[in-house]
Amino acid sequence: MAMPAASAKRRFEMEYSINASPKILFPYIASASGLSQWFCDDVRLDPDHRLNMVWDKQSHFAEIVAQRPGRSIRYVFLDEQKRPQQDANYLDFTLELSRITDEVFLRVTDYSDHADTQEQQEIWEGLVGKLRDQVGG
């Protein structure tokens, strides 16, 4: 059996300054209700504690694989049968506080097969803009 060709996945990473405390921001990156306010059209938690993230009426299932309360969270996307997959797409959100300036930064790591880096940057700038509107920052 031939091995499938390596996927052209890329790791996109950006930091965004947000004028809000990690305490205020964390629920927006780590809860279904918070994510649905800025990140996707809707987020539901299924009985197995998987997240159903909805964009354009399409479901994308993910599970939380790592979390540091108040600091960071990683979502790994599952296949259509809600099963883990090899080399899965994931999203990492990390909150960092600059001790020098007291600024709070949201670091986004988006590992996916999104090919157009410029488009991806515009998408994230729009999403983080919505998040800033939500938190007043």
UniProtKB/TrEMBL annotation:
Pfam families reported in the protein's UniProt record: START_2
Recorded superkingdom: Bacteria
Gene3D superfamilies named in the record: 3.30.530.20
InterPro entries xref list: START-like_dom_sf, START_2
START-like domain mapped to chain residues: 7-136
Protein name as annotated: START-like domain-containing protein
